Every structure is written in structure tokens, then in C-alpha cells.
Amino acid sequence: MTIEFTVFKGSANDGILQSKTYRDGPTSTQVLVKITHSGICGSDEHFKHADMVLGHEGVGTVEQVGEKVSQFKVGDIVGWGLLHKACGHCEQCEVGHDQYCANVEHYGAHNLDQGSFGSHAIWDASFLFKVPESMAPEDAAPLMCGGATVYNIIASYNIRPTDRVGVVGIGGLGHLAIQFLAKMGASVIVFSSTESKRDEAMRLGATEFYATKGVESFNMGAKLDHLLITTAALPEWNLFMPVMKPRGKIYPLSMPSGSGMINLPFAPMFFGGLTVQASLVAARSVQRNMLDFAARHEIKPIIERFPLTKAGVEEGMEKLRAGKMRYRGVLVMEE
């Protein structure tokens, strides 16, 4: 049986195109999902010119399953993120780092005829995740990529409750990072350009706040074990190198704006033994733990809602592009 999807694609002239995708019904390990919500992620902006269906923070209801699917049933609420499928038998898959599988299928390179900006999608069951019952689907959508990205730093790089962790930026990633870090017990030191978000940062769980605009140094006590850069605009490194502990780690979590290059001063890196650690979303086991942790501690993204229509996609992406989103956009399928 052929299934028809309504989808929303990028285009060469920046406009969003409404189109159709046709796929056979799910077989083997495939699952047909009726999409109810989709996050709007900064990564979607990278593909707005491409002839492909946009969106990769999807949540919806299972409508059909293939004959080899045992972990999902019709009616389950599930989600997916950047990754679609991995080989399961390479070295990276075997050690639990399936996001680095040499043959991984991912958004922007595979399955270009479907995404979360649409009515339906068919995915392999291995990269779908059950949404906890206590979690609203609209809150789950931004966690599928944004939440996984920041939580993976905590889970994979030994951030401990006794650590002091800096977070640069209070936006789509930053406001989630503050909540995850605070709930796991770390001291969260937040940096933002002005004082305007101080109160919000403290409500989210920050223990200290520093404005960066026009500042030559930070009057800070103890130094930082870790520093998460959640903004696409890179910080003034000479401000932050002096507040890093020896052997501290710096994590750039967004694709840098402009050239995409990260230029770091060598001397403080060298004499401080600092590490710059890149990180790609999360392995499946980490993603499942993230959803459980978020549900257990009531971690929720701050969201703005838009209809999952051509006009809604255009409005949401334009607001994100203008830097006015507070803080994650969520497309909602109209009844």
C-alpha cells in the first residue's frame, strides 16, 4: 500500500515549498509515524536552500509497524532526532557510539524525501524513542536534538555534581543546558551579553551570572572545570581562557557562524592543558537516558508554537533566523 505524505521542503530561493512524498507502507523494522509536533532547530537553517524535506526533531503517534518491530505498538508516542539508522556492527556501534558510525544515516544526507516538517514519516525502529508518559509531546520535540546535544556532554564527558560548569548563551541550547546541569547538581555559571536575562537564568537554575558586553575580565572566584558554548557566534576567547581551570574542557555545541572556523589562542591552551571537545548529538542509550532524566526532573524547553503548515514553517524559521525565538520553536499539527 502506497502512503502519501504532505511535506515542507527547502528551496534555492529561500522559500518553503509544500510537496508530496510517496512511500510504501512499513515493512520489517520500519515504523509509520503520524507527526503531531516538530521542533525548529538551527540545523534546519543550514538546509533551507536544499531540495529536501526539512525538520529532524519529530514527535508523533505510531500508526503502523513492520512485522519485525516488537518495541513499539500502534498508538505509542515516539520521537526521533538527527540520526536515522546505523550499521550496528562497526567499531563505533559496538562500543556504544553509534552517532559516529561510518555508515550512519542522518538528516541532511539521507531520506531527503521525508522529515519532521510534514504529516507522516517512516523510520527504522532502532532510532525511534518512546516519549515518557509524563512528558507533553510539544516539550519532547526540542529534546530530540537540542536536549540530546547538551545532555550528551554531561553523560559522556564526566561532568560531575561537584564541578563548576560555564554556559555561554541563554538560547535554544543554553536554557536547556542550564536546567540539565542544575538538576544533576553542578554549579552553573551563565554568561550572556547583557544583564537582561539574569533573572531568567537564575530561575532556570544558574548559581552565578556574568554579562560579557564591554567587559575586560570577570571578577569570579573559583575557575571553571567545563565551558559549554551554546551560541553560533563564538565568544571573546581572551575573556574565558583566564577563568578555565588547568586541564579544563571547552565544548562548542553549535556550528560557528561565518567561516565555520574556531581560532583559539595557543598559549593559554598550551600552558593550561585545555581541551576543545566536539560532540555530535548523542548515542541512542544516552538519548533514552536524557528523556528519562528530563521527565523525572520536569525539565522543559521554553517554547513558541507555530502551526505545522507552510505559513507556520516560514514564520517559525524567520523568527529563529532573526534571533527572536524564545527559545525553541515547535510546529504543531492542526487537528
Would you mind describing this structure in some detail?
With 335 residues, this protein is α/β, with parallel strands linked by helices. The chain has two domains: 2-144 and 302-332, Quinone Oxidoreductase, Chain A, domain 1, CATH 3.90.180; 158-276, NAD(P)-binding Rossmann-like Domain (Rossmann fold, 3-Layer(aba) Sandwich), CATH 3.40.50. The chain has nine helices and 17 strands. The strands form four sheets. Strands 3, 4, 5, 8, 9, 16 and 17 form a seven-stranded mixed β-sheet that branches. α5 (198-204) links the parallel β11 and β12 (208-211). The longest helix is centred in the middle third of the chain and has 20 residues, at 137-156. It starts with a strand and ends with a strand.
Kindly list the characteristics that best describe this protein.
CAD-like, oxidoreductase activity, acting on the CH-OH group of donors, NAD or NADP as acceptor, alpha/beta, Rossmann fold, metal-binding, 2 domains, 335 residues, ADH-like_C, Quinone Oxidoreductase, Chain A, domain 1, oxidoreductase
Q: Structural class per helix/strand content?
A: alpha/beta
- Gyration radius from CA atoms, angstroms: 20 Å
How does CATH name the architecture of the largest domain? Alpha-Beta Complex
Strand content: 25-35%
Question: CATH-wise, what's the superfamily of the largest domain?
Answer: Medium-chain alcohol dehydrogenases, catalytic domain
**Number of helical elements:** 9
Measured distance between first and last alpha carbons: 24 Å
The CATH topology label of the largest domain is Quinone Oxidoreductase, Chain A, domain 1
Tally of DSSP β-strands: 17
